[in-house]
Amino acid sequence: MSKLEMDDTIAAVATPAGEGGIAVIRVSGPAAFDSVQPFFMSHEKNSLKDRPSNTVVWGKFLDASGAPVDQVLVSIFRAPQSYTGQDVIEISCHGGFAITKKILGILLSKNVRHAEPGEFTRRAFLNGKIDLTQAEAVLDLIHAKSGRSLEIAIRQLSGSLSRALKTLKDDLVRLLAHMEAYLDFPEEDLEIDVKNGMQEQFTRIREKIRQLLAGFSRNQLIREGILVTIAGKPNVGKSSLFNALLERDRALVSDMPHTTRDPLEEALEIRGFYLRLRDTAGLVPGPGHPLDKMGMDRALEALRESDIVLYVVDGSLPLDLSDRHVYENIPLEKKVIAIVNKSDLPAGAGAKDLQALTGEKPRIPLSARTREGFKELEETIACFLEEETSETGEQITKLRHKNSLESALVALESAEKSFREKMSLEFVTPDLRAALEAMKELTGEVYSEDLLDVIFSEFCIGK
To answer: At 313, is the secondary structure helix, strand, or coil?
Structure first.
């Protein structure tokens, strides 16, 4: 974004489109006050420019002819203590398409430009209010699908990840500075013996980077959702379980086998975790109809993609060949919970066979009809998720973060290799500088306009 564009005054609706109690129109830029004042009238005589920052004024918004459009609240935020670092005015009006469109149109007729997607947050970054990881956390906050993903976004927006990355970058700067001091003044008796403590510094920085990278896959599970697939032979109650977990009738339930052919997927939240729950076709050793085979192929593909598998058997019947066939097709590395469904019916003779088949996997008697066992099932799923996503520190949230840290790690390991091989420090420092540059790109100290375009294009207009 050029300086000329940064000097523009921009405006956009900052609340979702549609009818609602309140809508907010945000204006940011050097002419924010001059753009709003001609169309605002309050009972108090002093103008908006004369009012202190962080105050709210009630009044009427007028059109160009002086006719009232709506009763509004005008919130004033002065530079640099505002979201964007510029003068910002937020107009809270009644929610609705016609009102917001008219007020925005009036502002845009007064040398105000319509904001691009994410332009308010982009200005906040360019004006030093937030770094690039905090800017990305704004988007994560908006898109958060569960309590856990919301917690991570709030923590990142507050600067916890930024502080962890700054500490890591400072460690690299210190290491590089010690090396360069040793190179520039080899004959001096330096306060820190660089070469003797160098390996410890390499190890500490390397482990910090690896720890951050390890958190990426865990965080992806939290942000994108854990895939939980329901699997079993036909007519064991998979779709009934699917509907009961969702607490609504989403899947067709029938006594006829092979009612479900295409996998069905819906979202739900359990103990603050975002889950993608998937119902699949019943699996049998030898499907007869070609459509049944296609459904089973998709079910097998779903099993391969899953993080957790709910293996469902009919507790009122003995275990048979089809039950065993389903279990044998669950990949060995998957987390499995055995669901003994229809627990409200007289128990069949397959309990011992099921234990022999599933070993130490959790087994939960459950009735989709009476909801017996559902609390235990949710607690078991939550325990699995706690294990998979247990935090060991700050978590990176974007593929960009991962790529930058991997670049820093490769450069650091190259520098460490040269050091271990007792090469001159002149051959070590270039790789350390490359690692440092990767860290600066991560926090946004070094950036390109193309990178910013990509990041902020994902934002909605008005944010």
So the answer is: strand
Domain map (residue ranges) of the chain: 3-130, 140-221+398-444, 226-389
Distance of alpha carbon 116 from alpha carbon 10, whole angstroms: 9
Fold classified for 3-130:
Gyrase A; domain 2 (3.30.1360)
Confidence of residue 191 (pLDDT cuts 50, 70, 90): very low
Structure tokens at 314: 């009919």
**Sign (positive/negative) of CA torsion 432, 435, 441, 444?**
negative
Give the pLDDT score at 251.
46
Residue 153, token pair as written in the block: 């976004």
Q: Are 376 and 363 within 8 A, CB to CB?
A: no
Does residue 84 carry a pLDDT above 80? yes
Please enumerate, as own/partner, the contacts of 254-262 that have beta carbons within 8 Å and a separation of 24 or more. Answer: 257/282, 258/234, 258/282, 258/289, 258/291, 258/292, 258/295, 260/295, 261/291, 261/292, 261/294, 261/295, 261/298, 262/295, 262/298
Instruction: Provide the b/e sequence for 206-229 (b: ≥16 CB within 10 Å).
Output: eebbeebbebbebbbbbbebbbbb
CATH number of 140-221+398-444: 1.20.120.430
Q: For 324-377, write each residue's pLDDT tens digit.
A: 888 888 998 888 999 888 887 777 656 678 888 888 888 888 887 788 888 898
Q: What pTM was estimated for this model as a whole? A: 0.73
Rounded distance between C-alpha atoms, residue 383 and residue 377, angstroms: 10
